[in-house]
Amino acid sequence: MPAVECTDLVLRYGATTAVDGVSLQADAGEVVAVLGPNGAGKTTTIETLEGYRTPDAGRVRVLGLDPRAEHRALVSRIGVMLQSGGVYPMLSPRRALELFRGYYPDPEPTDALLELVGLRAVESTPWRHLSGGEQQRVSLALALVGRPEVVFLDEPTAGVDPEGRIGLRAIISGLRERGTCVLMATHELTEAERLADRMVVVGAGRVLAHGTPAQLAEAGGDRPSVRFTSRAGLDTAAIAAALGAGVVEDGNGTYTLDTEPSPRLTADLATWLADHDAALVELRTTASLEETYLSLVGSDNDKPDGDPAPVRRRIRGTR
Ligand code: ADP
């Protein structure tokens, strides 16, 4: 039995269909990222799994339980990190944790949690005086108080500085090792790639692709892709003649070759560049995860709000 499972989930807000037939699974000891641009339906999906929304259609199970109908049985077994706040402004991290410990049968010790999320130095500071990153860490600690079997994280890296991100990654790895199932919503591809065992890419309320980061990168490579970076303004006609392949400069000294990658091509390209006193700064012969992602969700996916970017191309899911 998967720890988290939803099948053909549909959720509407009036005339807006926020989630339009999403199916996904996550197992114990697995970190799964629901990745997509703003407005894709990530939060709505997660909130439904947490039991805070009633599906308009589809089936949702967490640890085998219906998160709405069996919320009471489930609530002490899951941990929820909310996207923003939820803590009384005058409460310190220590007091908040002590309060939350009372809700669980076998809570983590407060000191261990403060240590884990690196909040010892500010344990007595009221919530409203904490920095954004510190507030995020309090929310994370609160999600972990009850030793949850499933943890839901919504944009856990939002507003977290690089050092904090490293700490967060370590905590999530620790949860995986413990056998916890972690389901996180994020619009940050790099974080999803670093943290997740598997990704479910969503856009406009639908699953566009899913698989491991490597599978997704590979799935985007259904067209030959050789890209290299050198100085701008090289003679593309001369390169094309030397290599027997079409060449276009994408701008800023990045070029795409219209051919299959091969050792011969690499050697010929390096020779041509050397003969023309041009450095080979970068050469990539496979599609990157970023290219796959952008081809799925469009390139302006980091808009702060508004409609999701149009889906340009779909690829088959992998699992
Ligand atoms: P994401 O988490 O991927 O940014 P959301 O699940 O928050 O996406 O939102 C999906 C869609 O549903 C968006 O179009 C959003 O504007 C809409 N939406 C979200 N919450 C509400 C709400 N409470 N009422 C009406 N529309 C909403």
> Which residue ranges are poorly predicted, with pLDDT under 50 across at least 5 consecutive positions?
300-319
Strand content: 15-25%
Largest sheet: 6 strands, mixed
Strand order of the largest sheet: 5-6-7-3-8-9
Q: Which structural class fits the helix and strand makeup? A: alpha/beta
N- and C-termini, Cα separation: 17 Å
Shape: elongated
Bound molecules: adenosine-5'-diphosphate
User: How many DSSP-defined strands?
Assistant: 13
CATH superfamily of the largest domain: P-loop containing nucleotide triphosphate hydrolases
- The domain tally reads 2
What is the fold-level CATH name, i.e. the topology of the largest domain?
A: Rossmann fold
Q: Level of helix content?
A: 25-40%
Question: What descriptors fit this protein?
Answer:
319 residues, alpha/beta, Rossmann fold, Alpha-Beta Plaits, 2 domains, 6-stranded mixed β-sheet, 4-stranded antiparallel β-sheet, 11 helices, 13 strands, binds adenosine-5'-diphosphate
Summarize the structure.
This protein has 319 residues and is of the alpha/beta class. The chain has 11 helices and 13 strands.
Element layout with pairings:
Layout lengths: L3 E10 L2 E11 L4 E5 L6 H8 L7 E6 L8 H5 L2 E4 L11 H9 L8 H7 L15 H13 L5 E5 L7 H17 L2 E6 L2 H7 L2 E6 L2 E6 L1 H7 L6 E4 L6 H8 L2 E6 L2 E5 L4 H13 L6 E3 L4 H9 L22
Helix pairs in contact: 3-4, 8-11
Characterise the protein shown here:
The chain has 2 domains: 4-218 and 296-302, P-loop containing nucleotide triphosphate hydrolases (Rossmann fold, 3-Layer(aba) Sandwich), CATH 3.40.50.300; 226-285, Alpha-Beta Plaits. The protein starts with a strand and ends in a 22-residue tail after the last helix. The chain has 319 residues and is of the alpha/beta class. Helices cover 32% and strands 24% of the residues. The chain has 11 helices and 13 strands. It is elongated, with a radius of gyration of 23 Å. The strands form 3 sheets. A 6-stranded mixed β-sheet has the order 5-6-7-3-8-9, with helices on both faces. Helix 3 (93-101) packs across helix 4 and helix 8 (213-219) crosses helix 11. The structure holds adenosine-5'-diphosphate (ADP). Adenosine-5'-diphosphate binds next to strand 2 and helix 1.
